[in-house]
Amino acid sequence: MLSQRTARLTSSLIRDILAAAQRPGMISFAGGLPASETLALPRLEDVPDGVMQYGPSEGEPALREAVAERARAMGMRCDASQVLILTGSQQGIDLVSKLLIDPGTPVLLEAPTYLAALQSFQFFGADCRSVALGEHGPDLDALRAGLAAKPAFAYLIPTFQNPSGRCYDAAHRDATAEALDAQQVLLVEDDPYRELVYDEACERTPLCARLTRAPWIYLGSFSKTLAPGLRVGYLIASPELFPYLLKLKQAADLHSNRLSQWLVLSQLQGDFAGHLARLRTLYRERRDQMHAALSEQLGEAASWQCPPGGLFFWLQLNTPGIDTRTLLPEAMARGLAFMPGEPFFPNAPAAVSAMRLNFSHSDPASLRQGVRLLAELLHEQQEG
Amino acid sequence: MLSQRTARLTSSLIRDILAAAQRPGMISFAGGLPASETLALPRLEDVPDGVMQYGPSEGEPALREAVAERARAMGMRCDASQVLILTGSQQGIDLVSKLLIDPGTPVLLEAPTYLAALQSFQFFGADCRSVALGEHGPDLDALRAGLAAKPAFAYLIPTFQNPSGRCYDAAHRDATAEALDAQQVLLVEDDPYRELVYDEACERTPLCARLTRAPWIYLGSFSKTLAPGLRVGYLIASPELFPYLLKLKQAADLHSNRLSQWLVLSQLQGDFAGHLARLRTLYRERRDQMHAALSEQLGEAASWQCPPGGLFFWLQLNTPGIDTRTLLPEAMARGLAFMPGEPFFPNAPAAVSAMRLNFSHSDPASLRQGVRLLAELLHEQQEG
């Protein structure tokens, strides 16, 4: 009775973890939530009258223009007519899946990659292939070979990647764009973390800005900088792809919430730069606190790169062969939630001995206490 | 490069009509917009702090409970755990399509039916079959035969149907529910217009409340009663279907806008009954004005049922063989937009000589002037 794709709806492990992480007293490194104290309630003065009525599927014209202006400042060629406002950038992943994936369609991803994108692509039946992500970007030989096999698209998160926190350097950005252009493979670039930069020297110009021949879809979000609860994101697409995406958006939910589009616009037009600066200061402190706690408690048990931006540490246990999913029940019993590494891999190896730790949502005391709980658990594990 | 389903994205005729209908000076009977003066801007006092943060995919618990309570008052067996808050009820159609439709899946619909549902089902590859809708409900013999062929589901709009304005009477509701139960075919009941009732004697108890064996999904909306711009709708599902729909919702946009859920809840907890009473009074007047204008100007050229609720007149021209799409360019040149009948049919006959006219969004002078323009056009057509 149900569709074939429904059988590909993946397990509820992640939902279960995130739900359990809400329990009182639980320290959660599991989700990717902004710090709640950074989420100011908006004032609703001067809201234009029309926002309660049906609106355009494309989004509010003034917000599309503001997004285009910001995209141009990032180095992209972008007209407002290429901007589609979304109900969160997660919706962009759904639209991309509908636009591009039939059962068996090959798709190229980083390993590890954003698990909710992976789930959506697999749900629509994609043949998900992966390229290992190194410290400064993807394995370029593997990337070129993967693109030569002509996937329908490559889904990449070059800047402060989820879950790894890594940021492609300029050489890897250039080489990746060149390889995409050479094969004319469509790039879907997911870029929700770019404003959360803590080490300013990072190269952050989008890959889309470097392309000259390959078509592209760029996904952006206001959830990490303004308010996830408003569900406002956007995509920017090559002109030839835009009309399809617009029809798909209309079929999905007619248009995005107009009140929230207006609230986002009014914040972009206010002191958004100052807000971002404060956000970076707060999150940089928390990153440094988690890095210090990890160095103190887990310096011998695990390895990690201190992330130059974004929301996550990606912790690789030094003892191989431990599937971190097996650690989770005991961790949660002691009051700590984290995200095991396995669901982030398109084709997971036998035992993924990595985990993702969020540092934006916990206060300093919880960061220290959570790392202490994790260290105790890992040390017992090694002894036991 | 694009998915096979993208080739089934239908034409942009409807988008073009609705876009053109926005032009200054145009009288639009084309869309289904609430009267703008009924859409009050909310006050944002007492908004709970948490609404800017990520929230549950199911929706806000208090809103789910309020929806369940209203559903029970309509006669449905409904617990809050069966309620999923949606980004507009259009999203429910997208989720239903994903859950139930593979290429070639048979689906049973009324003819005519809601065109954006039809488009979504066809986009996912459904084999759309239809049952003619009579004055008091579907042709019951055709319905029973259609259900005996075991479609994956039946999509029905029993109350103030879009586009026909018709309302199943009690006998047709009972017989339809009985036929669904007999074949255990899943019912998707779309019910966005139920509160816009002008002739109070209408039987409006949902079909879902009458089912005893068939699974069901009920789609509800706040767009017609509170504010379409907020994009808040909901579905209620048989318990066995709920977990799938929840996962699909999460994959589509994580969760619905929390601020808007709170605004809807606060209006439900306020004088919602008084608001509905005022809305019905206003729309009843406009319905009566359009009915009077049509009777005066088009009594010989067309036939229609004065709709007991909802937002639309469905006008059948008395001269057969006129495809109303051919009238549209000249009508729009003279300043009138309407929706031609053809896109509302799963398998349209050669020339659909019907059209849908909205009466909620135009003021009395525009209602009269629009009908006058239409009458002139039709009289010229008959003479020409």
CATH homology group of the largest domain in chain A: Type I PLP-dependent aspartate aminotransferase-like (Major domain)
Strand line-up in the sheet with most strands of chain A: 2-9-8-7-6-3-4-5
Compressed to H and E, one letter per element, the order of chain A equals: HEHEHEHEEHEHEEEHHHEEHEEEH
Number of strands of chain A: 14
InterPro entries (chains A, B): Aminotransferase_I/II_large, Class-I_PLP-dep_aminotransf, PyrdxlP-dep_Trfase, PyrdxlP-dep_Trfase_major, PyrdxlP-dep_Trfase_small
Protein name (chains A, B): Putative 8-amino-7-oxononanoate synthase
GO molecular function (chains A, B): DNA binding; pyridoxal phosphate binding; transaminase activity
Family (chains A, B): Belongs to the class-I pyridoxal-phosphate-dependent aminotransferase family.
Throw out a few tags for this protein.
homodimer; 384 residues; alpha/beta; Aspartate Aminotransferase, domain 1; Aspartate Aminotransferase, domain 2; 2 domains; eight-stranded mixed beta sheet; four-stranded antiparallel beta sheet; 11 helices; 37% helix; 15% strand; globular
